[in-house]
Design goal:
The protein is of the alpha+beta class. The chain has a five-stranded mixed sheet, sandwiched between helices.
């Protein structure tokens, strides 16, 4: 897995010249449709097994507390292969039960710090049960048609948005930024705010 992630990172670096000159973003080509209506859509393509995503999350948490009223934020589990699909399924199973807001950070800690394989269903169920989650209901959510549809959609979005590495933040289906492009975790949040302003101006 670490070897694969390194390969993905190198591929992402080879893609960097496509970014806007001297700027910390690139254009999504072709632009993708949004589902946020009148609000500006912000998507984070992430992976629980990605250390960069884990470290960016603390900056995102602070940013989300001040989320502008005209912005809608959504997580999108990135899927490059079947191995990454496992943790995407974990995310969506928790999301189906409405548990994602409470347990998102805890999943990161379990995977990144405690080395718990929450991509394994039984391990996930045991872990969640210790946190007061109904094991039977989570098992049903894990196997549900809704979860499978969401996983398939994430796989398609990873391709259609041209995601080459995680984390990647996409604004209004047009602009993509990431720590690889900004060379900084806090700088990524600063760039995100700039792209939201650009999207806001474009909408008006």
């Amino acid at each position: 897995m670490k070897f694969f992630y390194s390969v993905v990172f190198l591929l992402f670096l080879s893609w960097l010249p496509m970014a806007q000159a001297d700027q910390g973003y690139s254009l999504v080509n072709p632009p993708q449709p949004t589902t946020s209506g009148k609000k500006i859509e912000v998507l984070e393509f992430f992976y629980y097994g990605c250390p960069h995503c884990y470290h960016l999350q603390k900056y995102l948490d602070l940013w989300l507390k001040k989320l502008p009223k005209d912005v809608e934020f959504r997580y999108v589990p990135t899927i490059f292969n079947d191995e990454w699909m496992k943790l995407a399924k974990t995310y969506y199973a928790l999301d189906v039960m409405g548990l994602e807001p409470r347990l998102h950070g805890a999943v990161y800690d379990a995977v990144q710090v405690q080395n718990i394989d929450l991509g394994d269903e039984n391990t996930l169920l045991d872990w969640a049960a210790k946190r007061g989650v109904d094991r039977g209901k989570l098992s049903a959510a894990y196997a549900s048609f809704t979860t499978q549809v969401d996983v398939n959609k994430s796989k398609q979005m990873t391709r259609s948005y041209g995601i080459m590495g995680t984390p990647s933040l996409v604004v209004d289906g047009k602009y993509l930024t990431s720590p690889e492009l900004t060379r900084s975790l806090p700088g990524t949040i600063t760039e995100l705010d700039k792209l939201i302003q650009m999207a806001r101006a474009a909408r008006h």
